[in-house]
Each structure stands twice: as C-alpha cells, then as structure tokens.
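Tutorial sheet, problem 5. The two components below are modelled jointly, 900 residues in total.
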Amino acid sequence: MSIILSDLTARYGTNVVVNRVSLEINDGELFVLLGGSGSGKSTILRMIAGLTPPASGRIEINGRDVTHLPPQARGTGFVFQNYSVFRHMTVTENVEFGLRIRGVGRAARHQRSTELLDLVGLGGLGDRFPDQLSGGQQQRVAVARALAYEPEVLLLDEPFSALDVKIRAELRQSFKEIQRELDVTTILVTHDQEEAFELADRIGVIERGFLMEVNTPQALYHQPRTEFAATFVGGGNVLVGRMEQGQIKLGAVSLPLPPGAPPHEEDTPVRLLFRPETVYVGAAPPAEGSDIHTLGEARVCDEIFSGSQQRLRLEMHGFEGVRSLWPPPPYGRRVFYIEAIQTSDRAVALTRPAPGDHVWVGLRRYHVLEPSGLKLLIAYAETPGGQAAAAFGALLARAASGPTTLLAVAEAEQVAAARETLEELRRRWPGGPSPRLTTRVRQGAIAAEVLAEAQEGDYELVVLGRGRDGLGSVAQQILKRTETPVLLVQETRPQIARVLICTAVGEPGKTDVRFGGRVARRTRAAVTVFHVVRPGAAPWERARAEQHMAAAQAVLDTLGVAAETKITGQRPEGRVADIAAEAEAGDYDLIVIGAPAWQHPARSRWTDFASQIVRSTSRPVLIAPMVP
Amino acid sequence: MNPNSKPRATVLPPLLLILTLLPLLLMPLGAIFVFAGHAGLPGLFQTLSQPDAQFALRFSLLTAFGAALVNGILGTFAAYVLSKYRFRGRETLNIVVNLPVAIPTVVVGTSLLLLWGPIGLLGQFLDPLGIQPMFAPAGVLLAHLFVTFPYMLGAVKPVLDELETTYEEAAYTIGASRWQTFRYVILPALRGGLFSGLLLTFAHSLGEFGATVMVSGNLRLRTQTAPLYIFAQFEAGNIETANAVAAVLALTSFVIFMLLQRVTQQRNRRAS
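Model answer (structure tokens):
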C-alpha cells in the first residue's frame, strides 16, 4: 500500500468538508477522486501533500506516518490546476528546481531534466520561459517538475480543467502513458467523469466530504452500490420498486432479482438501475423468448441526435406508485420518464422513433442497488422526551428499514452507564435487535455532540426528544448548520398511520411534500396536505394555493401514497391555531412542516413560527429544510 | 482594445496640450537649467565644488541610499506579511502603514520632534544619556524612513497579491524550505516591484523637504540636505548657487524617472 488514509477529517470553521475518509491506494496505481465542486476532493489531496492540516485522522505514505510532517518532508509531487510554473525560470530551471534544492550536481540535473522533457514531449524547449509556452505546455512543465525528484506519490489537482477540450484530451492521453511508464503512484482529482473513466485504475466518488464508493470504472458504471454513484456516474435510470414474492414489482411489471444482487426482505423497496443504452426501444414488444424484459408502452417525448447516438426521453404508461429517483421527476406532474440511448446506425433506419410515437420499452440488463432505507439518527436521553424519541424513532426505523444509529451523549464518568442503557434499548428494540441498528456514545456537551454526529454521519433524518418548550437549541443548531431534516418528539404515538403535511406555497412547499411523502410511503400512512390561506387573500393567491395543492396531490399519487388536500382560511388567532386544530381533529401521528434554507432572509421569522407550531401540539413534528 | 479609443492621427489637440503644459511644467523645468547655465559650465562646477554644496549633495544622496536600503527590506517584509498572512487587525495595519502618504510632511517632522526631541515623549529619557536623534543626521534618516515607507510597500504588495498561493505551495511540495521559497521563488518574481520601489523611495528621499526642515535644524555641514541648501541659498540671495544644486537634483530625478519608465514598460510587455 502506497498511501493509506484513515478516518481523515477536515473542517473549515464549523463545517466538516472531509468526513472520516479511509482509503488505501496501491503501488503504481492511478487513483481518481471524482466529485462535484465543494465535495472536499481537493482538500483530501492538499492534506496528503501537507498543504492543509487535517482536523483528525492519519495519513501514511509508504509505511511512514506523515500526518504531522511539513509538505517539504513528504516527498510528494503536486500539480496544480493553474500550473503555477515559476515564471522567472526557464523550463529547464523549473524542472531542475527540486534537484537543485536537494543539492544534485549540475550534470546529473541536466541529464534528468533532458530525460523528463523528452518524456513529457517538450524536448528542445528547455530554454524557453513559461510565458512563451501554451497552457498545455506549461502543464507539461509542471508535471515534469513534479516528477523530477522522483516523488513517492504524484498528486494532481484538476490538472487539465483549465485547458481547452482538444488539448485536454491530448494531454490526458500522454499523461496516462507517462504514468504507466514511470509506474508512479498517483492520485488525480477531477470533476470530469469522462476524464475519470479514461484515466483511472480505480475511482473514488466523493460527495459532501464523504467517500461514497470506491471501485474500478467498469464496476462503478455497471454495478454501483449506492444511489449517488449510480446517478452521478454516467446517465442512468433509477427506479424504486417493491420486493413481492421474490420478484421486483414495478407497477404492473414483475422482474426477477438478478443473480448476485444484494438480498432484499419481502415488502421492502428495491432500487433498480439501468443505463440508457440497455433500454430496448421498438415498434413491437420484444420477441418472446428473448432475454429482454418488457417494461411496457411509452410515448416518445424528446429526441436528441448527437452524431454517434440518439437520446430519447420516454414517458412510460402504467407506472403509478413507482418512485423515480433518476431522471428526477418534474414536480407536480403525473409523468414518469425513462431515458434511452440508441446507436445511430439503428436510429437512422426506418424505425427511428420520433417525438409523439408510441413505442415498446424493455430492459436488456438492470442492476439492483444495495437496500438503503432512510438513514436515521435517534438522539436518546433519559428524559421523557428522549424516551419518546427512542420509541417513536423505533417505529419509524422499522418502517424505513434503513441503517439507524442510537446516540447518547454523556459526561466522561457516565459513558459506561450510557453504553449499558443503549445496549438494553437495542435488546428491547421492536422487532428484535436489527443488524442495521448501531449504538454510539459521545462524550461532551449534548448540543455540540449531537450536531457533530449529525454532520459526520450523513443522516437523512435526526430524531430528537423535547420538553414542552419550542424548538430547543439542539434542533436549531442542526437546522442551522446542516440540511438534515429534524423530527421532534414530545410524546410517542402507537403507530404512524396519519401524516399531516403543512405546506407553504412555493419552493419550500416542495421539499416538505417530497420528504413527507417519502416518510408516508415508507410507513404506509395516509397523508393530508394542509394549507392555510391568509385572510383577505386575493383570488390569484387562492388560485396559486389550489395549483400548489394539485401538484402536491400529483406528487403523492405518483409515490403511491393515499393523500387528500385541504385549504382553509386563517383563524383570527393565526395560522398556528389552524394547524393545531387540524392536528387534533384528524388525530395525526406526524406533522410535517417545511423550512426555508438557513441563509434565507425569512429564516428567523420562520424559526419563531416553527417554535409556535411545535409548542402548540404534543404530537411529533418533522421539520424538512429546503434543499437548494 | 476598444476600437473607438484608437489613437487618431491629428496635430491640433497635442499642440494645444503642449501649449497648456508649457507654462505649467515645461518652462519651470527649463528655467532651472537656463539659470544654472548662466555662468557657463566652469561657473557651475565652481559653484558645486563649494564645501557646503558638496556636503549637501553627498548627505542627500547618502540619506536617500540609506532610506532606500532600510525601507527596501522593511517594506518588502511588511508587504509579505500583509499580503500572505491573515490575522486580526490586518486591514487596520494596512491603512496605518500607508498613512505617511496622506500626512503633510511638516506634520511628520513635528510629530518626530515631539517623540524624539529633547523634551519629547522618548527623547526626554534619552537626552540625559547624551543621545539626541533630532537635529542630527540620524533624525534626518528617521524622517525620510517615515515619509518614504509606503512607496516600497506600494510597489511590492500588488505583485505579491497577484502571486497565487499555489506558487509558494508548489515550491513547498517540491521540497523548498520557507527561506528557499522566498529566496528562489518569491524574490525573483518581485524583481520589477523591488526595483521600482527602491527607485521611488530614493527619489522621494532625495527631494524630501517638509519633514527634514523640521527635524534637521538645517545645520550647515551637519544636517543640511540638498533641498534645504537650495532653500537657504535662495533666502540668502545666492540664486546661482541654489540653481546649480537644483539642476543636479533635477538631473538625478530625471535619470531615476527614465529608469522607472523602462522597468514598468518591461513589466507590461511581459504581462501581455
């Protein structure tokens, strides 16, 4: 192992930008870290080089712990996006700089730089100054400079992204050859999938500081484990079906679980991935006896011709109750899209489908992702609220069948006791102690530790207990510093059968409907979408509210959730009274409200509103912040 | 370049400009040399060889060298710290170090006297020890350092600001220590800025009058700089003598200015 990262974490202020990343990189491997901007990929690279100090964790290079060494002592070669070639030095002087620092003699230096310049294709240009070179040539100089002193690892931070397309492809190719020839262990950071696929021996997909998945390009494309990798890498279709009698049920269609697919329990969601090029599109249903699985009929919505291939967007019929994760379904419309790609040689033939055509759709191949469920964090405390949170959280965890963490925060001397209590809870867990339930005890102040766990654990929902007061500082911290929804429980409920989604019109209203719908789908609860119109509202405001409710109904219908909508006028006591009255009248088990993004100017006004709602009822309240 | 701003071939506007500038800039400059040349070259040399004049010119040049040297180092250091480190009060410090440009030089002289003078804040303790920085060459140097401090900073800091941090980081990962990075990577990149900063400091020190006249006491053959000498000779009615020294100063400044022009042009050509 050339490079070993263990639990590497980085923070900027209170933000966790790299989150417990552990990774092993083999000798001579070309490893690519692939992620969007702000995913933390460059920070990982900078930590390996010693340019950014890690908050915690360990970095090992060739068996040597370098975590606390300065960059000079690490023996890495680093190539920057902006080349950073020394402008006052000639190409040769640039390449020889590392050797000069190390006191290598003139003749040896010259030999090495000539060798390297030939290798990177700059032979004969040694006397030029960087400003006499093109961007691509400057980056070649930077690569040669980083290789001159034979570093133990080569690190490249988006090395080709400042170049134009043609030069980028050229340089990429010659870089791959150089890397092979020198057999130097390399980590390259990029946001460009194509680049990652072309270069990598293995790819690590990174998102919001989490290393989501590591695998070879082929495996990552055809057999990803996670939904993120499936949708981020390559275009794809990800649908959620259900496991019924050993078959995957997608609306009216049943598909067999392919061999080697991760096991799924009966009646749990199954996430199905198929790539656009594996979709069969034809005027007739696939022939009997062929190994194509028929999905059904569809209408061609869109067609894009891009030379070698034809991209189709197909609107499927008869897929009610099937959730589509990718392509993301348009909000509030009862349509279900699938993307397909056909190679041009077929597309130009007479059968070429055009928008409006009705076609048959089938699957040549599909892949089943690992079961995920809703990833829950339940903060336990020995208060009535904490116990209610654990009880209600258990109900939800069972319905969501996702990984669940039971967290307690204790003082140093009480850690052992807290661990004991959690173990006890785990043994008494409804439905038996699930392998997907983990317990964790953190030491310190409650608010800070729950927040830290919520940030580090990538949870989809945090369950907190509460007293009679409003939001509470823990919930406020989490809502302010993360995008994770929070569920506040004062008293538990015997079941989760009725969900009230209190929605505002506009963007935040979409998040609460989506997330509330997801929870209802998992728990099989009936949903009431509720909206309060302010007194004296203009007719257009009313119309807009009605439109919003119709869209919510459509979203919930396509999720297969039983839903009704309700619009009422505001009581003189205010909106909160309306919501409280509806919550009592309908005897709801869960109330869902949306929240604006925390940077939003209305956020503080909204916090008061949320506090009032929470105080007005003893029922569990779920707050779903808007995801931009 | 905006096509509308392309220079047009015409004679009238430049002619008008020159005519306007004639009494404002060009004629005064010429006057110095015309007057200096009244007694012919031998007369000029004779005037310049008087001990007072000799001392004033030498003292001025020496002080200017001293100011350029000290502020060259200090200003580069200040620019480096202000540009590369993030700390509390950085903005304030940035303003403070540039203040000397805005403060009238006579006020600078006064405040130096109030600090280092025999009854000044610090001076009152030094005086009994026999240390008197004011009305001595050291005082003149202090005044010049104060007044010319921002020029070096102003020439170097923008270059440093423009230098990406990755430039230094590249050197670190290659294995260069902080000092090696400064010596081989940063300093060479600053060459142009350093040179123009030094010249600016030198030129401003050479012509400094307001602060010098306050702190020097204008003592012949001890603290009298060339500008003070010119003023003193004028007051005494020795216009020819004053003019001779003025011509030398003007010539020196002219040479420095030409050098500066060349450096800037070179840098601009590189940048494009």
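Marking note: The mean pLDDT of chain B is 88. Full credit if you identified this.
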